[in-house]
Write a structure and sequence with these properties.
- The protein has 8 helices and 7 strands.
- By secondary structure, the chain is α/β, with parallel strands linked by helices.
- α5 packs parallel to α8 and α7 packs antiparallel against α8.
- The mean pLDDT is about 95.
Length: about 200
């Protein structure tokens, strides 16, 4: 759950795994460069505006200014060399072939409005993690993004009031949304905010 907005990230590899991870980084707001002698169809399908692709071998100079490198080639020796160079340069490393071979792993994740649903298999089975995250996403009802959006619009007014903050998304709020719709929820939350502010010493 790193905030990657504006980060310079490097993906070493041009296969399907590298392409998926490059796409994930780009969606998170990172500036992504992929480096590989050969790019797969998945890699070339990525928007050139989102991912800069360079068809060549990795060079140590590629790490200049980079904060995170994803190593995802099909050659374990290349992966180890790139990971070692990155670690020596103080760059965070994610190795696609070895979950324990870097600083972080990338969880299988899906967005549902403002909600992120993520699953990590501990490296045992990325495919299982992808299946489970789809199941978890499908279990999130359509009311949850609405509830979270309405709550987010009112959080600032309740800063420092943890009990009131919890009520923004409690069972009562969810029930009102499900039974009466978004407008009723908005009215309920506005009343909650007004009452909480009125009860505070500054109110």
């Amino acid at each position: 759950m790193l905030n990657l907005s504006g980060w310079c990230c490097l993906v070493v590899g041009g296969g399907g795994v590298a392409a998926r991870r490059a796409g994930t980084l780009a969606q998170a707001g990172a500036a992504v460069t992929m480096v590989a002698p050969v790019m797969s169809a998945d890699a070339t399908a990525l928007s050139s505006e989102a991912v800069n692709r360079e068809e060549r071998a990795f060079a140590d100079g590629d790490l200049a200014g980079v904060r995170l490198v994803v190593v995802a080639t099909d050659d374990a020796a290349v992966n180890a060399r790139v990971a070692d160079r990155a670690a020596a340069a103080g760059v965070l490393v994610n190795r696609a072939d070895r979950g324990d071979g870097g600083d972080l792993t990338l969880m299988a994740a899906r967005r549902v409005g403002p909600l992120t649903v993520a699953v990590d298999s501990g490296g045992a089975s990325p495919a299982a993690a992808r299946t489970l995250v789809e199941t978890a996403r499908d279990a999130v009802g359509p009311e949850w993004p609405v509830l979270l959006e309405e709550a987010a619009a009112r959080r600032a007014a309740l800063r420092g009031r943890p009990d009131a903050l919890r009520r923004l998304t409690d069972a009562a709020a969810l029930d009102i949304l499900q039974r009466c719709g978004r407008a009723a929820l908005a009215g309920h939350l506005d009343t909650l905010v007004a009452e909480s502010v009125a009860r505070s010493p500054a109110g």
